[in-house]
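Consider the record:
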Amino acid sequence: MGDYSDAASRALAIHYAEAVALYADDQEDAALAIFLTLGDYEDTYTYIQKIRYSQAEALENAGDTEAAAEAYAALDDFNQSAEHARQLRYEQAEALLKAGSYTEAKEAFEALGTYSDSADRANECVLLQGDALRDAGDLDGAKAIYATLGENADVAHRIKSCELLEAEALLNAGQLEEAEAAYTALGDYGNAAQRVLQCRYARAVLLRDKGELKEAAVLFTDCGDYLDAAQQAEDCLSRYELPFTEAKTALAEGDYEKAMTALDGVDMTDLPTDYADIPAMYVRACRGAAQSRIGVEDYTGALTCLEKIGSLSLPWDCDDVPYLTALCCSQEGCRLYNLGDTENALPLLVRGRTQQAAQAILSTRNDWLILGTWTDGTHTYSFRPDGTCALDGEELLWQLDGYNLLTGTDAESLSATHKLVTLTAEQLLLRDVRNGTDTLNLSVAE
C-alpha cells in the first residue's frame, strides 16, 4: 500500500514537472491540460489561473472582447481579473453606444450594475436614443422614449426641445394661432417667447391685409415693442376710424349715398364703445340713400340700399324701413309682372303684400296669395313658389285645388289635408280636413 502511495506521488510530481516545463516553454495549452489533471497538487491552481489569464489576454489582444471579458470574469479576483472584465464590458457598452445601438448599450450598462458611472451611462443611452428620434423628426417617439426616465431636468429639457420643434413646424406650415399657443406653453424656454411675438405679429399682418383693422390693431398692440408693432397698431386704428369719420361728415352734409358707401363692409359687431352709434348711422345712411332712389323711381336700387340694413336695430327716426321695403318690393314686383316676368315678380309681390298694388295682383289667384310665411304666434307655415312648403317644420310639396290644400312628401302622395276657409293678404284660416276639427288661424309673419 505504501509503495502504491509513493508511486502516485511520484507520478504527480513527474506530471507536475512536465506541465511546469511546458509552461516555461510557452506551451500553455499543453501545460493546462496536464495541470487540470493534478487536482490541488502543489501550486497547480496558481499555474491554471496564470494560464487562463494569459488566454484571456490573448483573446483581448485578438479583439474578441466578449470572450475575453467572460474569461477574465471566470478568474474572479486573480490579478484583478474581475475588475478588468468589468472594464472590458464597460468599453463594449461604450462601443455599442458610439455605434448608435442605444438599446443594446443601455442593457450592457445596466448589466454592469454599480460599476463606475454605468447607471448614469444607461440613462444617457435613453436620452441619446430619444435625441436620435428627435433629430430624425419622430418627435412623438422621442418624447415617449424620454418619458421612460421619469421626471428630471434632462428629460424636461429634451421634451421641451421636441415641443419647440413641433411649434416650429406649425409656424412653418402657416398655422399661426396654433404655433403661438404652442410657443406660449413653452414659457421662456429657448426662443419661445420671441417666437410668440413673431406669430402674433404675423397674425396681425394677415388681419390687416384682409381689412380686419380693429382686430389687427389689438394684436399689434399686444406685440408691445416687437419690431414696428406700435406704429402698425396706430396705422390700423387710423384706417379703422377713417370710414366712420367720412360717414359722419357725409351725413352732416346730407350725402347719404357717400355715408352708406363709406360704411359698406364695416363689421358692425363688437364695436368699441366709442363707435356704438355707427350701426344707427349706417341705417340712416341706407334709408336716406333708398329714399333718394325712390324719389326717382329706382326701386331696385332703393331695395338694395334697404337690404343692407339686415338685422340692425332701427333708430327711432328710421321705423319706416319695413314700409319702404314693402313699397319697393311692391313697385318693382308690379313692374316685372306687367312686363310678363311672373317668376321674378312673385317673390317681390309676396314681400310687398302689405301694399295695395301687390295685393291687387296676388288676390287674382289663391295660389299666389297664399305664398309667403304665416304664423299663429308660435308655429310657422311657409308656402313657396316652387311648390314646396314647410308646415310647422315639416318639409312637403303643396298644391291648391280650388279651396282644397293638397300636401304630400312627393307628387304621387299629394292629397287634400286642409280646406281654405279664409285667405286675404293678411289672414289665412285653414281647417284640417283629416280630423275636421283643427283650425289654423294665421297671419303674415313679420
Observations:
- The CA atoms of residues 32 and 48 lie 6 Å apart.
- The mean pLDDT is 85.
- Strands lie at 372-375, 380-383, 388-391, 394-401, 404-408, 415-423, 427-432, 439-444.
- The domain at 365-446 is CATH 2.40.128 (Lipocalin).
